[in-house]
Design goal:
heterodimer, A: alpha/beta, Rossmann fold, 3 domains, seven-stranded mixed beta sheet, six-stranded mixed beta sheet, 15 helices, 16 strands, 42% helix, B: alpha/beta, eight-stranded mixed beta sheet, 11 helices, globular, binds thiamine diphosphate, binds iron/sulfur cluster, binds magnesium ion
Chain lengths: 410, 325
C-alpha cells in the first residue's frame, strides 16, 4: 500500500511485518522514532506475540537480543552513533555466536564533539565486527532492506545491520510502498534457528576456545560472511520477483556506460550524486555512479566488475579513518588493486554538513581532469583550520578545540 | 510425650544427606538422582567454593523446575573452568556471552520463552562478584527494575579471581589482592543484597556454601516465585584467599558465625528471615587462617584494623539481629 510517511515509521512498519518476537528499545537520536513506532504497534496488539523490552542501555539492548535469539526468538533492535559504540562488545559477541539479529542503525556522527547529525562514522567504526552491513539509498529501500535482512540473517545465522542516514532518511516524509503481511510472510519463513537453548536438548553456547581452534573458528566467520556475496543477489532477485521493485543487491551502477570517471558512494548521498552526474553528463562529461549497498561483506568482484571500464574512481564518503583518510576508498583500492588507476577520496558531509550539488560538481570536475589531491575534504574551511593550528603552535593552553573553531567561525 | 527437635548441627557437620531426616526433606545433593548440572571433570581449583556453590544451586534449581532450566553465565572462573572448548561440564542449556551482560542475556531468554508460551522453562543468570557488583551492575539493576522473570545468582569470592585475584567492589576492607598489595582500604563497600532489596524485587537471599540445606531451600523458594530474584552466595576461594583447599567450608561458616556475612532472606525489600549465629566468634577466627589477611597479624598485630573489622561484624549483628535472644 502506498503511504506518505516518515522514514522511521516506514522502517517500523517493515520490521513489524517481519514479525519479530523480541524488540529491545533504547532512545538515541535519530533512531528514536523507529522504536517509538514499534512500541506503539506492539501495544496496539497489531504485532503479537512480541515482547517489547525497554532496556537501560544499548549494551543491554544488544545483550537482551543475544539472549532472545539464542533462545530461538526473532530479535530486533535499533540504534545510532554513541549507542552503537556502547554496544560494541556485544556486537562482536552476537556475530561470534552466529545469532541472526537484525538492527537498524540511523547513521550519525560520533563525538567528541557531540553531534547528533548524519555521517557514517558509527557503522564504519564497526565494519569489522562480523555483522553484515547493508546501506539504504532512500526510504523505500530502507523499508525493503529490513525484509531482506531478516531473510539473509536467518539463512546464514549471522546478524545484519541495516544502515540508513540519520535525519536525511529517518526523518524525511516520503511516499513508500508498504507491502502486505501475506507478501512478507511468503518471502520470510518463520525463524528456524541453527542452535537453540532448550532443556530438551541441552547445549553449551559460548565456550572458551584456545589457540588450538580459534583460527578455524575465525576463518569460518569469514567464510560464512562471504557466503552473503552470493546470497544477497539471490535474495535481491527473489525480492524483485515478489515485490516488483529493486532493493538491496551488492552494488548498483548508474550511467556508467562509457564512463571514464566513476563515483562510488553509499547511502542517501547517491540521490544528490546521480543528479550531479546527470548534469555533468549533459555537458558531455563521461561520468557515472556506483552505489554500494552491501559494505560488509565487501563485494570485491562486483565492485571490480562495475569499475572495469573506469580510468579513475572518486569515492565520496561520509566517514574517515583519522590518520589515514578514506575508509571506503581503501576498500575500493583493494578491489581494483591490479589496475593502477587513481582512486580519489572525497570526505564529505561529516556531522551533517550538507553535501550540495554545486560542491560535488566542482570536485568531480577537478577529478575528471586529474586535478585533485588523493584525499579532499568537501567544503572544508581551510583558513579556519589553519588559524586553529597556528594558535595551537603558539599558545600551549589554547583551550577546547570545538570552542576555538566556533569562536573563529564567528 | 516430650518432643526434642533435631538440630542439624547435632550431626557435627552441616554436610550433605542428613540421615536423621525423612527422605523427602533430605537435600538434593544427598539424592543419587540429582542432576549433576555442573558435572565433575571441570577445571576448578581444589576446594573451589564457587564450583561447589554452583553445583548446589543449579542442582537445586533443576529439582525445583523439574529440569526445565536455562542458564546465562558471565565471564569468570565458573565460565572458564566449566567450558574449555570442546568440553563442557554443563548438563543444562547454558550460554556465556560477555562479562557484564549475564542479567540482560537472561532477560532476553526469558522474553523469548514468554513469547513462545514456555513459561514452564525458568531462567538463571550467574556470575562472580566482579561480574555482578561492578561491570554487570547496570544490566543487573535494569533486570531488577523491570522485574524480569530471572533468578540472578552471584558467587561472591570477593575479588576478580579469574584474572588473578584483583580487587573488586566486593573485596572486604584490609584484604590483600594483586591490586591492593598493602590491603584493601576501608571504603563504603557495595552491599549488593541490600541494593537488590532497594529495588523492591520479590525475593532476595544470601547463603554460604557452608549451609547446603539452607542454600538449597533458598533456591527452591526462589524458583517458586515469579519476577526478578537475587541470590548472593558466599563462596570461598582457596587460591585467592590463601587458605588450604580443605578449609573452604569452614572459612565460609566462620564468615557467617563472626557476623561478617549476614545470612538472611527478604521479600519486596523487607527482611523476612535471618539465620541466627549459634555462638558468635571473634573476627580473628575468620581472618587468621587466610593469607590475604596475614599482614594484620605479622610483623605486628594490627589491633586498630582488626577492631574496625570487628566493628563491621558487630554492626551486622545489630542490624540484622543475628544473635538468638
Ligand atoms: C569487558 C571485560 N573486561 C574484563 C575482562 C577480564 N575478566 C575476565 S573474568 C574477570 C574476573 C572475574 O571476576 P568475578 O566476576 O569476580 O568472577 P570470579 O572469576 O572471581 O569467579 C575479568 C576481570 C573481560 N573478560 N571482559
Ligand atoms: S581461583 Fe578461586 S574461584 Fe577460581 S577456580 Fe580457583 S578456587 Fe575457584
Ligand atoms: Mg570473584
Amino acid at each position: 500500500m502506498l503511504k506518505q510517511i516518515e522514514g522511521s515509521r516506514a522502517v517500523a512498519e517493515a520490521v513489524a511485518l517481519c514479525r519479530p518476537e523480541v524488540i529491545c528499545a533504547y532512545p538515541i537520536s535519530p533512531q528514536t522514532h523507529i522504536v517509538e513506532a514499534l512500541g506503539e504497534i506492539v501495544s496496539s496488539g497489531r504485532l503479537a506475540p512480541c515482547e517489547f523490552v525497554n532496556v537501560e542501555s544499548e549494551f543491554a539492548a544488544m545483550s537482551v537480543a543475544i539472549g532472545a535469539s539464542a533462545a530461538g526468538a526473532r530479535a530486533y533492535t535499533a540504534t545510532a552513533s554513541q549507542g552503537l559504540l556502547y554496544m560494541a562488545e556485544a556486537l562482536f559477541n552476537a556475530s561470534g555466536l552466529g545469532l541472526p539479529i537484525v538492527m537498524t542503525v540511523a547513521n550519525r556522527a560520533i563525538g567528541a564533539p557531540i553531534n547528533i547529525w548524519n555521517d557514517h562514522t558509527d557503522t564504519m567504526s564497526q565494519r569489522d565486527c562480523g555483522w553484515i552491513q547493508l546501506f539504504a539509498e532512500n526510504n523505500q529501500e530502507a523499508l525493503d532492506l529490513h525484509v531482506i535482512a531478516f531473510r539473509l540473517a536467518e539463512e546464514l545465522s549471522l546478524p545484519v545491520m541495516v544502515c540508513m542516514d540519520g535525519f536525511i532518511l529517518t526523518h524525511a516524509y516520503e511516499r513508500v510502498d508498504v507491502p502486505d503481511q501475506a507478501q512478507v510472510d511468503a518471502y520470510l519463513p518463520p525463524f528456524n534457528p541453527r542452535q537453540i537453548l532448550d532443556p530438551a536438548e541441552p547445549v553449551s553456547i559460548g565456550a572458551m576456545v584456545g589457540p588450538e581452534a580459534f583460527m578455524e573458528v575465525r576463518y569460518l566467520a569469514h567464510a560464512k560472511q562471504s557466503q552473503a556475496l552470493s546470497l544477497i543477489p539471490r535474495w535481491a532477485g527473489a525480492f524483485r520477483q515478489a515485490f516488483g521493485r529493486e532493493a538491496g543487491g551488492l552494488a548498483r551502477s548508474y550511467r556508467t556506460e562509457e564512463a571514464e570517471t566513476i563515483v562510488v558512494a553509499l547511502g542517501s548521498v547517491l540521490g544528490t550524486l546521480k543528479d550531479t552526474v546527470d548534469e555533468l553528463r549533459e555537458s558531455g562529461g563521461r561520468i557515472g555512479v556506483l552505489g554500494v549497498s552491501c559494505f560488509r561483506p565487501w563485494p570485491f568482484a562486483a565492485v571490480r566488475e562495475a569499475l572495469a571500464g573506469a580510468q579513475r574512481v572518486v569515492v565520496v564518503e561520509k566517514g574517515m579513518a583519522v590518520g589515514v583518510g578514506g575508509i571506503v576508498s581503501n576498500n575500493v583500492r583493494t578491489a581494483i588493486s591490479t589496475r593502477p588507476i587513481p582512486v580519489y577520496d572525497v570526505v564529505a558531509g561529516l556531522g551533517g554538513r550538507p553535501i550540495t550539488k554545486a560542491s560535488l560538481a566542482a570536485v568531480l570536475q577537478r577529478a575528471m581532469t586529474d586535478d585533485l589531491e588523493l584525499t579532499t575534504f568537501l567544503d572544508l574551511d581551510r583558513a579556519l583550520v589553519e588559524k586553529v593550528l597556528r594558535k595551537e603552535r603558539e599558545v600551549r593552553r589554547s583551550g577546547p578545540i570545538a570552542e576555538q573553531v566556533l569562536k573563529l567561525k564567528g | 510425650m516430650t518432643f526434642q527437635p533435631v538440630k542439624f548441627y547435632q550431626t557435627g557437620t552441616f554436610t550433605v544427606g542428613n540421615r536423621l531426616l525423612p527422605a523427602e526433606t533430605r537435600s538434593v545433593q544427598a539424592n543419587m538422582r540429582r542432576t549433576n548440572s555442573l558435572n565433575s571433570g571441570h577445571r576448578a581449583c581444589q576446594g573451589c567454593g564457587e564450583a561447589l556453590g554452583a553445583r548446589y544451586a543449579i542442582d537445586a534449581a533443576m529439582h525445583a523446575t523439574e529440569n526445565r532450566l536455562i542458564a546465562a553465565n558471565a565471564t569468570g572462573c565458573l565460565e572458564v573452568f566449566s567450558t574449555p572448548y570442546p568440553e563442557t561440564s554443563w548438563q543444562i542449556p547454558w550460554i556465556h556471552s560477555l562479562f557484564g551482560n549475564a542479567a540482560a542475556v537472561a532477560t532476553g531468554i526469558a522474553a523469548a520463552l514468554k513469547v513462545k508460551g514456555r513459561s514452564d522453562v525458568r531462567v538463571i543468570a550467574q556470575g562472580g562478584d566482579g561480574g555482578t557488583t561492578d561491570i554487570g551492575f547496570a544490566c543487573l539493576s535494569g533486570m531488577f527494575e523491570r522485574n524480569d522473570d530471572v533468578l540472578y545468582i552471584c558467587y561472591d569470592n570477593e575479588a576478580y579471581m579469574n584474572t588473578g585475584v584483583q580487587r573488586s567492589s566486593a573485596t572486604p576492607p584490609a584484604a590483600r589482592t594483586a591490586t591492593t598489595t598493602l590491603g584493601n582500604s576501608f571504603n563504603q563497600g557495595k552491599n549488593l543484597p541490600w541494593i537488590a532489596m532497594a529495588h523492591g524485587i520479590p525475593y532476595v537471599a544470601t547463603a554460604t556454601i557452608a549451609e547446603l540445606r539452607d542454600l538449597e531451600a533458598k533456591v527452591e523458594r526462589a524458583m517458586h516465585v515469579r519476577g526478578a530474584r537475587y541470590l548472593h552466595i558466599f563462596v570461598s576461594c582457596p587460591l585467592g584467599w590463601g587458605h588450604p583447599a580443605d578449609q573452604s567450608i569452614r572459612i565460609a561458616r566462620l564468615a557467617k558465625e563472626t557476623g561478617l556475612f549476614p545470612v538472611f532472606e527478604a521479600e519486596h525489600g523487607e527482611v523476612t528471615s535471618v539465620s541466627k549465629i549459634r555462638k558468635k566468634l571473634p573476627v580473628t577466627d575468620y581472618l587468621k587462617p587466610q593469607r590475604r589477611f596475614a599482614h594484620l597479624f605479622s610483623p605486628e598485630v594490627r589491633t586498630d584494623l582488626i577492631a574496625r573489622i570487628q566493628e563491621g561484624a558487630d554492626r551486622n549483628v545489630r542490624k540484622f539481629g543475628l544473635i538468638e535472644n
